[in-house]
Amino acid sequence: MRADDERKERYDFLDWLRVIAIFVLFFFHTGMIFVGWGWHVVNRETIPALQWPMDIAHRLRMPLLFVIAGAGMWFALQRRSTVQFLKERSIKLILPLIAGMLLVVPPQIYCELRLRGEWSGSYLEFYATRLREFFPYPMGDFGWHHLWFILYLYVYVLLLLPAMLWWRRSGLRATPGAWLCLLGIPLGINEVLLKPVFPETHNLVSDWYIFNHYLLLTAYGYFMASTPGIWKWLSGFRRWSLFAGVASFVLLISAFNTGVIQHDSIADGIGANIFTWLWVMVFLGYGYRWLSFANPLLIWAREASYPVYILHQTVIVVIGYYVVQYAWSPGVKYFVVLVLSMATCFVLYEACIRRFATLRFLFGMKVKPGSLRLMPATVRRAAGDDVQ
């Protein structure tokens, strides 16, 4: 494939993987209500069978999204100037982040306070009195919650841009090979060194373990996308990476169960991150092999995935707030929250977000040319190049 053709090609399998990863978030964040790990809304009775799947999902879901995001930066910089790239990323990341913090996240905090008995007034009273203080969560009532992904990704854009531009101009390219399996080791070293001192908080300022973890994964994604033939190689290597991924899982579980490895030990940090990276390679290899196609479902989901991501946790928390107060079994509650949250997000997207130009813009979607005239003048000017 010529370089020009490769720049024009859209890798549909990456879109599929991103859509699937966001879909899995419904199962994960619904599960957070029932595993006893402490969350915004929790059920008194837990579902112990969820703990291992949740732990595994925690190790895999966000790493895959950041790798895909890093790959997307490479593709975007092939088609845009640096200024255009920064403008596009600012519009698609910062505006949805601000809108989300002001409109989407507050209901989560309100439900959390209500469930803990720390607030008894209406939502409008909460918004008008406590939220407007803009005091950071958890001490205050203003935060980004699950939108930390968007904030961190924008910071990574700013931090990595000089290196990304240098790598693009240099013409240096790697040759794919089994050495790619070793990329899990730096992730493990980062966890071993920083997690004990800077545990996961998503507060940006003192979250160095998580910050560096996903910074590395974003850089990996960019580096891999720049490597000629990488996706085809991963596809050819997929059975070996699957074997290695399954073997790492079996070894880790056996070591935990026999007491050979303790949680949060050095061996745990290194082994868990090798497991994570091997499975990212599995997803990319099998994704390229089986998901390199587009259909109407992907076209719809490709556009819907970002707004649904922004909405999903708030919808889960609000529905969960009511459901946990019923005397149902935990399994029934899980199913009800899961199904209702999915349905609600899809209805909100279809009935509201995708149909109104201003909402499309605020939720990071492209604005259709015919819709520009319906937008406020300031929003029209800001939309600028973000018109398809």
From the N-terminal CA to the C-terminal CA, the straight-line distance is 27 Å
The poorly predicted ranges are 1-8
Radius of gyration: 21 Å
Number of helices: 16
The strand count comes to: 0
Instruction: Spell out the helices and strands N to C.
Output: HHHHHHHHHHHHHHHH
Shape: globular
Give the biggest sheet.
none
The computed structural class is mainly alpha
Beta strand %: under 5%
Write the layout of secondary structure elements.
Elements: H1 3-8, H2 12-31, H3 51-79, H4 82-104, H5 106-115, H6 123-129, H7 148-170, H8 184-194, H9 208-226, H10 230-236, H11 238-258, H12 266-290, H13 296-323, H14 330-351, H15 357-362, H16 377-383
Give a brief outline of the structure.
With 388 residues, this protein is mainly alpha-helical.
Describe the structure.
The two termini are 27 Å apart. This protein has helices at 3-8, 12-31, 51-79, 82-104, 106-115, 123-129, 148-170, 184-194, 208-226, 230-236, 238-258, 266-290, 296-323, 330-351, 357-362, 377-383. Among the domains are: 68-75 and 145-290, no CATH class; 107-143, no CATH class. Helix 3 packs across helix 12 and helix 11 packs antiparallel against helix 12. The model is unreliable at 1-8 (pLDDT under 50). By secondary structure, it is an all-alpha fold. It has 16 helices and no strands.
